[in-house]
Give the backbone structure.
Amino acid sequence: MDWIRVLAFAFLIFYHTGMMFVDWNWHIESGHNNIFLKSIMLLTSNWRLDILFIVSGVAISFMVTKMSLKYFAWQRVLKLFIPLIFAIIIIVVPQSYYEALQKGVFEGNFWQFWTTQYFSFSIDERMIAPFPTYNHMWYVLYLFSYTIMLLPVFSFINSEKGAGFLLLFESWLTKGTKIIWLPMALYFLILMSNGKDKVTAAFYNDWYGHSIFIFALVMGLLFVRMPSIWASFERNRYLSLVAGLLGYGALLTIFLTPSDMLPFDGSAAWGYIAMFVKWSWIALIIGFARRYLNFSNKALKYCNQIVYPFFILHQTVIIIIGYYVIDWGLSGISEFLIIMIGTFALCGLLYEAIIRRVDILRLMFGLKWNGTII
């Protein structure tokens, strides 16, 4: 799961860079619309967020076995809430600034924007988000809220009664192909209950998003307490692969075929096929990772240390670099590669040169404060 965590977060840089090169509404737009890139993003958009919450659930489940729930809640404040507030006040601001510049919402320098516009608590319909905003840090807001809300669940799974329940559930769930079809059936139930499959990232009305992400987080919490689950994923990995490829093929067919040429209502089928793709790809990723990435090394340990600061920084760096690069008149592929590689490089430089060396910044980026017991 450590490899999945690192690769999933690294993929966000690819995905968010790609958002500038397709015709989906985003903060910065390059004017390109790469169909091949969109086809890849179409696949990954169905599972990339869920798998992050599953991985987070695994990590949380380990944590609550090593500390009291009171101390765990305090750690969540330090690791999630403080970086969230810091990001809203400092890190996310350039995202809104450059978006406002490109969309003609604001004219002036960054200092003027930060001191007069950003904290105006207003909404401009041309902007994706209001002033101020959390943008990509919605994941941290959601995760913090869920972990506080689920404290009773953590208490239950730590109890003898909870352990007994999980033992029985494990023996049932790991038989045959249940690990494939049961979560998929529950995903279908979530879709039918909500009537839509769109994550809004607006905390107050994102009922579909909350449903699938809490479900994913709870799966991670429980699966790590049931070790045989991982072997079940591995045994069923080829079934997951076949299902995932078939589902992706169906999505591509609907996406690439004019609606009047389809023998069925593509929009009505889309949500259910997307759910099918979502879980089959999550299952195949876990299954193949269990088979081929079940090891650790120095590179993985290092990446695990930097992944959270990279996440906090990455979208801001993408937008700053992208704002200037898309005006260079290069090909779309060249611009995409410069922005993506530049983002990895600049995030790494900021981490190594500044963040890890300054205690207050370590705290703001969710790292341990050197020399203390935090």
